[in-house]
Amino acid sequence: MHSTQVRYLIVEGLSGLVRRRLSGSVAIMIMGAALLTLAIFSLVTINLDTLLQDVRGEIDVVVYLQDDIHPEDQARMHRDLAATNGVTFVRYIDRDQALQRFRIELGDDAELLDALHENPLPASFELGLSPEGQSADRVHALTAMAQGYPGVEEVIAQIDWVQRLDRIARVFSIVTVVIGLIVLISSVFVISNTVRLTVEERADQIEIMKLVGATNHFIRMPFVLTGWLQGMVAGLMAMAVLVVAHGLIAPQLPDIFFFGRAQLLGFAVLSATLGALGSSLALRRHLKL
Amino acid sequence: MVQATESSSNEARRGPAGEARPVISLFHASLRYGHFLALDDVSFKIENGEFVFIVGPSGAGKSSILRLVLMHEQPTEGEVQVGRFLSSKVRRREIPLVRREVGCVFQDFRLMRDRSVEENVAFAQMVVGVSRAQTKKNVVQVLNWVGLYHKRHQTARTLSGGEQQRVAIARAIVNRPKILLADEPTGNLDPEVSQEVLDLLFRINAQGTSVIMSTHDHLMVRRFGERVIKLDQGRVAADLERYRPQASDERRQIESMRGPSAGVGMKERSVQSWLQSPDRENHHA
User: What topology is assigned to A60-157 in CATH?
Assistant: First the structure.
């Protein structure tokens, strides 16, 4: 490409930005807001997932045993639980171990236990579940099975509230994907519409370019550049707002996950790409032949 | 094997047997818009260097033919050949190359009205990627030639109709096309100015560029003795060969001896040097 052509593309691309200041700014604002929404939802989803992983821990089900359980029943139960699909491990905690743990958990307050004459804690099986084993149906089946054994005091599945959180997290990730799609499509259309105004304004010039033998590629480029710049500005603005908001919130939530510099830039580049895509769509009708 | 070593521009003008290939040909071309048949089985050939008037009332298909030649449109049936391009074989991305072989002038001038004369002409060069220095040289030459060099800094909208059309002609030939299409170029001009524009077209043709001019003024065209294709309702009603060739040549001789014609103001020699300059052939190579 010749230097005169490069100059033409840059001048035209920038003038497209300036010429349509008002509609361009509105488009940038809408696109920026859409991107901001997407970024926020992504962050919430990611943080929720991290949170879930932390709280889930390794133990999913605890089977508390009666003190007078028959050793044979206990041994049979141990075998059966370990052989159940979806169970990754079965750990037997006897009453002394339970008390020992409790003592550690209490720390300085452990002397309170000395007031007790008897160990109040039951023995238990602790079960870990594989991800597939954590489905509601499987956990319910496992709980029911364990409850059916003689000498079982109580079965507690931590899974209940974890699952509720899980469900919320899943809803969030679906919402994020849906919002992502809406943002992608709407950004393309918003930019496409503003660029279309510029294109209509330049219809004569486009016609002339076609007549003198300009390639479609060459005709398209200044408009694509305009759209690209608009998208880039929208993306950078959204990311700036996000960084400022994070700066305000971070002191309260020190462990919160936030995007790195590359990811923030990635959002802006995505936005610019959408803008470029939108403006080449705006030209499709004019470049038919 | 001799042909294989021939340059592409020679190939463009010669068929496989070595005979001259027409610069444009329509072969049983039809163009249909829904139920409306804009062109109905139209066939003709235009040889290199010919001057052809296409006449007919509005709606007869004149513009449709020009649209086919510019490959704005593909014929619904039949074939259109422009230079080395065939409508049935041309790829979409080659269409700009077709248009670089064909200069265009229209009744409504189609200039960028807010830009200067110079910018309008230079734009055509920029689009096809001619260097700035070369563009400057070419624009000066071509504006001199159409007699508008002194108005090069004026915006197009401040010019008279005849002047605007001359700018359009300058823009059409600055890329040195092999064919010049003029779609009712005098339609908006009064007779005296029309004559100037026609003179310009004849002079372009005299240097070897094929010129196709459409008009609805069928009385005017026979005065010149050039070939006339008459269209009626999308069909070729008559294809009148160039007649009084002597007289026509005489007219041209007179024209060239007369030197600068009124309002045009450039010697024929300059025209010659422009259209026959050595880089004409490999201009788009």
Answer: Alpha-Beta Plaits (3.30.70)
- Numbered residues of chain B with Cβ closer than 8 Å to any chain A Cβ: 70-73, 92-93, 95-100, 104, 110-112, 123-124, 126-132, 135, 171, 175
Instruction: Collect all residues from A whose CB is shorter than 8 A from any CB in B.
Output: 1-5, 8, 204-205, 207-216, 218, 289
B178 touches B97 (CB < 8 A) = no
**Tens-place pLDDT, residues A115-155:** 777 888 899 998 888 877 777 778 888 888 888 888 898 88
Q: Is the whole model's pTM more than 0.90, yes or no? A: no
> Domain tally for chain B?
1
Least CB–CB distance from B112: residue in A5, A205, A213: A205
* Dihedral, B258, B264, B267, B268 alpha carbons, nearest 10: -80
Query: How many separate helices (H) and strands (E) can be counted in chain A?
Result: 10, 4
How large is the average pLDDT for residues A259-273?
92
Sign, Cα dihedral of A64, A67, A68, A74: positive
Of A170-174, B23-27, B174-178, B181-185, least confident by mean pLDDT is: A170-174
Burial (0-12, 13-18, 19+ Cβ within 10 Å), B29: buried
The CATH number linked to B205 is 3.40.50.300
Residue B161 in any domain: the answer is yes
Nearest-Cα distance to chain B for A200, in Å, is: 14
